């Protein structure tokens, strides 16, 4: 885990409760304060992806050929 001018990205994946945050915090403590950021998936979803994409509610209101069409056939009123 060396530092170049471009930096290093480390991604931790695993099931809920598997210790990802514990490991991330332990790694963060090995670096000088302020040089290693831990960014949670929830933060990415809330702050980065939501700002870059339309909301789910807006997508569900968008017109489209399959809107309100049940698997069996006719469109809903």
Kindly describe this structure.
The chain has 77 residues and is mostly helical. The protein has a domain of 25 residues. It is 36% helix and 0% strand. It contains three helices and no strands. The longest helix is centred in the middle third of the chain and has 12 residues. The chain is globular, with a radius of gyration of 21 Å. The termini are far apart. InterPro entries: P-loop_NTPase. This is AAA family ATPase.
For this entry, give a set of tags:
3 helices; 0% strand; AAA family ATPase; P-loop_NTPase
Helix content: 25-40%
Total number of strands: 0
Q: Which regions contain 5 or more consecutive residues with pLDDT less than 50? A: none
Termini separation comes to: 58 Å
What would you call the structural class? mainly alpha
| Large-scale geometry | globular
Radius of gyration based on Cα positions: 21 Å
Tally of individual helices: 3
> Could you tell me the mean pLDDT?
74
Specify the biggest β-sheet. none
Order of helices and strands: HHH
Strand residue percentage: under 5%
Summarize the model shown:
This is AAA family ATPase. With 77 residues, the chain is mostly helical. It is built from three helices and no strands.
Layout of helices and strands:
Layout: H1 20-29, H2 41-52, H3 56-61
């Amino acid at each position: 885990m060396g530092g170049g001018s471009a930096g290093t990205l480390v991604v931790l994946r695993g099931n809920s409760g598997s210790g990802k945050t514990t490991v991330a915090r332990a790694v963060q403590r090995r670096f000088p304060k302020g040089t290693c950021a831990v960014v949670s998936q929830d933060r990415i979803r809330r702050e980065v992806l939501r700002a870059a994409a339309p909301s789910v509610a807006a997508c569900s209101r968008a017109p489209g050929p399959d809107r309100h069409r049940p698997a069996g056939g006719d469109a809903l009123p």
